[in-house]
Structure formats: structure tokens, C-alpha cells
Design a protein that fits this description.
By secondary structure, the protein is an alpha+beta fold. The chain has 2 domains: 73 residues, Arc Repressor Mutant, subunit A; 128 residues, no CATH class. It contains 7 helices and 6 strands, in the order ααββααααββαββ. Strands 3-4-6-5 form a 4-stranded antiparallel beta sheet, covered by helices on one side. Strands 1-2 form a two-stranded antiparallel sheet. Helix 4 crosses helix 6. It is globular and about 55 Å long. It starts with 6 loop residues before the first helix and ends with a strand.
């Protein structure tokens, strides 16, 4: 990167999907970000564009800027806005398109993009181990891993939430079988998982952390 991004490029970067870093814009705009090493084009169809670590740093710097200087943050993307958002299970009702072939394609593309980010940013290029981005976006990363594995999000399935513990999320499910399925999916995605009981209710939940080695 030899010069700072333009105002238009910053807007595109700041509007990237918060879960995966997927970008929206014209082909020329996205190609310019690739030339400046702020984005990369996924090699598989639909050849979507995603932020590189440098692009994520630009977005994070903008988020830390004083409110008077920073542009208004984009609103949370609804399901029909065209931006992908991993489903954490906290959604009050199944959003439009849930379980549809289009949603399945979006999830598959987002997961492939995350695996490519792992390859590009892990020192050894490992795709089976979570990367730095996932460690700073724990809930979104875990939710994407679960949805990509075919686990259904709440209210009939999993719910992913933050915990007081560093680098850990809690995963709950309405059934014991569903909880075991979530554990298997997260372990396959490179997460460490342990099962615990809440007190005093005794309800079971998972504590999941990105695996380091």
C-alpha cells in the first residue's frame, strides 16, 4: 500500500461484512482494492472479494477514530440487504431465506472465504486452525462454523453468546443431541470444546475456544 485509500474505498471497506470481511462494490472498485493489497478475490465461484489483514486494519482504525471524524456506521444488515451475516441464534424469528438454497450458497461462500483467510494469515498457511480474525470476532466465527456445518440456529437450535472468559464463547442448544452435534462441528472447524452445566438449573452448554496448535 503506497497511499491511503480514497474516501470511496474507505466506505467500501467500512461496509464489509462484519463476519467474513466480504466486500460489495463495482468490479473496478474491488480490483483497485486488490491492487492496494486491501482485498483479495476468492479463487472459487462466485469469486467474491474479501478484506485482507491490511484491509481489516483500515476498517478497525476507522472504527477507533473519534465519532466526529468517523462516518456514521452502517446499520445492521437485514437478511435481504445483500450482505452476509452469520446467524448466532439470537434472531427472534427465522429470517427470510432461512434454509433456502440461496442462503446455503452464501454460507458456503463465506466459509470458503474464511478458510482462505486462514491460509493467507496463519504463519504455516493452515486452513484447519482458526486465524487472528476469528479470535477477535469469536461469536461471528463460531456461528459461521456451526451454520456452515449444517447446524440450525435458534430458536429451535443453537445460540452462540459471549462469555467473561477470554477467547471463549458459550454455545447452547435446545436438545442434548443438538449440543453434541454443535460440539462435533466446532471441533472439526478447529475449535476446542468442553461441556459444562449451568447452576442452579443444570442446563448443559458448550464452552468453545479457537485452537492454537
Amino acid at each position: 500500500m503506497t497511499k491511503p485509500p480514497t474516501a470511496v474505498q474507505r466506505r467500501i471497506i467500512e461496509a464489509a461484512d462484519p463476519a467474513t470481511g466480504r466486500l460489495s462494490g463495482s468490479e473496478a472498485q474491488l480490483a483497485a482494492l486488490v491492487r492496494h493489497h486491501l482485498a483479495f478475490r476468492h479463487p472459487r465461484p462466485p469469486h467474491a472479494y474479501f478484506l485482507t489483514p491490511a484491509g481489516h486494519r483500515v476498517r478497525e482504525e476507522a472504527a477507533r477514530a473519534p465519532a466526529a471524524e468517523a462516518p456514521a456506521p452502517p446499520p445492521t444488515a437485514p437478511a435481504d440487504s445483500g450482505l452476509f451475516a452469520a446467524r448466532t441464534g439470537a434472531e427472534p424469528v427465522p429470517p427470510p431465506g432461512a434454509g433456502s438454497p440461496a442462503r446455503a450458497r452464501e454460507v458456503r461462500s463465506a466459509w470458503e472465504g474464511l478458510l482462505e483467510m486462514r491460509r493467507m494469515t496463519n504463519p504455516d498457511g493452515a486452513r484447519g486452525r482458526p486465524c487472528g480474525w476469528e479470535r477477535t470476532h469469536l461469536v461471528q466465527a463460531a456461528a459461521l462454523a456451526l451454520e456452515a456445518a449444517g447446524c440450525p440456529p435458534g430458536p429451535a437450535g443453537y445460540r452462540v453468546g459471549e462469555t467473561p472468559q477470554p477467547e471463549a464463547v458459550a454455545v447452547r442448544d435446545v436438545s442434548a443431541d443438538g449440543l453434541r452435534t454443535c460440539a462435533t462441528a466446532l471441533e472439526a472447524a478447529g475449535w476446542q470444546v468442553s461441556e459444562h452445566a449451568e447452576r442452579p438449573q443444570g442446563a448443559r452448554y458448550l464452552l468453545a475456544s479457537p485452537r492454537r496448535g
